[in-house]
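The freezer alarm interrupted the setup, so I double-checked each line after restarting. Inputs confirmed:
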Amino acid sequence: MTGATFLDVSENLALVLLGAAVALVLWRLFSGPTLPDRIMALDLLTTLAVSIIGVLALRSGVGLLIDIALALCLVGFVSTIALARFVLARHALHEIAALPEPSVPP
Amino acid sequence: MIAEILQYVAGGAVLLGATFSLLAALGILRFPDLYTRLHAATKAGLVGVGTVLLGVACASFDGAVAVRSLGGVIFLVLTSPVSAHLLARAAYAAGLRPAHITVVNVLAKETDIKS
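Predicted 3D structure, all chains:
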């Protein structure tokens, strides 16, 4: 097996693994149970999108995709911080309902 | 010859990073509360995306792309702990408490956590 073939196979396999990871994170995003859980899932989703764009850049040979991944990193960081501030602000306004207790695994 | 070795290294790095990302996703699905989930999402997620970007830098054979990938890794290493810490602190200040099986909670005695 030459290096190019190995790289090709591992890119395809990595895309499959990252797709499975996105499915699991989407599950957490929809099931919650609290707002910070969803924010964390969105953050990890942005990170996974950066990984997928990196693999696609390697696969297609288009170097510009790396710039898109960098911009996505920046947007993900800023949005996570803004949403964390939103959690704090909503708490300060006493609008936050009683947060459910975290579930204890059996 | 060098190109061949770099391609093998890049393929291995991409596979390893994707595996770490999958483990991070499994972690945030299986762990009991937000604070343990943040461990999985931040640490394993950061290692996953960092390894993938290092693999891209190895196999791109283009200086500009390699430098931008490394810059992305450095940016993620700098910002990921900051956002995770801010999110955990905001959640604790908003009243979210760790799971009952937590052994040590240093903040338990403090009555008022402000940002």
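Quick read of the result. DSSP finds three helices and no strands in chain A.
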